[in-house]
Amino acid sequence: MTIKRRLVISNILMLVIPIVLSSAVFALIPAIYMAVTGTRRPDVYFESDWGRMKAYYAWIGLMYVFLIAVIVVTNRILTRFVFRNVANPIDTLTHGVQQIRDGNLDYRIQYDRKDEFTGICSDFNDMAQRLSDSVERRQRDDDNRKELIAGISHDLRTPLTVVKAYVEGLENGVAMTPEVQVKYLATIRSKADDLERIINQLFMFSKIDIGEFPFDLGPISVDEELHRLIDSVTEDYEARGLTLSLATDCETAVVNADVQQFRNAITNIMENALTYKTAEQGKLQIATHMDSEHVTVELVDDGPGVPPGDIDKLFTVFYRADPARSSKKSGSGLGLAITSKIMARMGGGIQAHNAPEGGLAMVITLPIAAGDSAS
User: Fold this and answer.
1) According to the CATH classification, is domain 218-367 in 3.30.565.10?
2) Which of 67, 137, 295, 320 has the fewest CB atoms within 10 Å, measured from its CB?
3) What is the pTM of this model?
């Protein structure tokens, strides 16, 4: 029974009970008076005998006192009936609030009644869950921020140390010949490029993360863009030790994407495959597929793969699987995190799994543009 219904019934009873009792009392007063006094004539009430009139009014006063007492008792009973059903849920909510205040964010209210407090208790539990999730997210953000700082320090320190050492070598005359000096300068330039790349990636990640990085979304053909990209970088990657192959099956598929960021996402995965390859000449196979709603781009390398328990961590900032994908040439740890955010901004996603034949498979999905007749 709802509290509103209890209040309505209580108010009705507070009106009905006094009326019923009053009617009963006034109906019974003459009979009770005649039975007590032995009077058998009802018209005695209208005689001018002062003694009898005084006795009659005394009985009326007594009955009124009795009626008031009944009303007071009835009111107390009905008030307690209603208050108990309000006070108990309030006490339950108060206890729940105290638990949350004291840091017990896992506390949930158990309330089985069907009344106005049912929704309040449900909202309380929902609030507690959201608060718990918010605290967990904040803790993860704090952990990521600490990892970000540690990762930045690690990735910047190595090239800076090399640059400093080679500059000191030039200053101290270690590089005596022009050939050695050119080699030193080339190394310094290479490490400066590494620093610039890391800083640019960090800047891009931060901008995408806070939603301030501009995306120029428009219709593009996934297959055409992949062909353009692979054709332009194949020779360079082969020279660096990674052979690329492309098999497309989505010639008619069009998606809404930022061309440059789409290319950046694919490049980040290629760089990841190049960084962690174990063979002298690694391989990366790229293939596209489609269904009625999505285009899928699958990139499979022949590297060491990733421990199953670490798959979900690949797209976190500065993550490096250990030990399978650790190497002296370890990357910045930002590439896959940036790729994940790029895909999310374009309405898609990216997942990873170990390929059955070995290596790591990255699977990108993008929704087909509305109105595109990809059949």
Assistant:
1) yes
2) 137
3) 0.56
